[in-house]
Amino acid sequence: MNILIKLLLLQQRFSNVSLNVVFEDKNFHFVTNNLSLSLKILPEDFIFNNKGNVRLDNLKILPKGIKFDNKGNASLYSLETLPKGVEFNNEGYVDLESLTTLPKGFKFNNKGFVYLNSLRTLPEGIEFNNKGGVYLHNLKTLPESVKFNNEGDVDLESLTTLPKGIKFNNEGYVDLSNLKTLPKGIKLNNKGDVYLRNKILTHKNESNGKKEE
Asked: pTM, whole model, 2 decimals?
């Protein structure tokens, strides 16, 4: 199939969105700005490297090998599951508002926020290495091996228990406003405030390795 036919089929598939596409092996490389697509499926090993945002409102299943290397945000509001091998290296936020499960050991390496507000549990080995905040508003349980290495805030406002060995290495606040008790001897290590049910713990707080204000 020649390039012209491929381009015509691709444009039809993307609901008449006009794209500048470079074909390289089996991957489609976008060299345009923002993309707002009504796709319900994607081929494997699909790469987004456009200069703006990627918004996929209707996509519920993401195949393996997808890479978000775009310069803006990645919004996948309807996505319910995330396979291994997917990479978020984009320079904006990642919004997975409907996601209910994450694969074990998954890493977020984007430079903006991460929104995972439908998740109630996290598997072992998750790493947040993004540059912005992490928002897990409905998370009920947190495994000890999760790593918060992000440069922004961590919002866990629904969490009621905290494993003793957890470490928050983020540079912003940690919201634990529904937490009933802090485990004895825990050191959170974050650089911002810690919000608990009836008080705010600052840098002078014992849970951050110093005295409470």
From this structure: 0.77
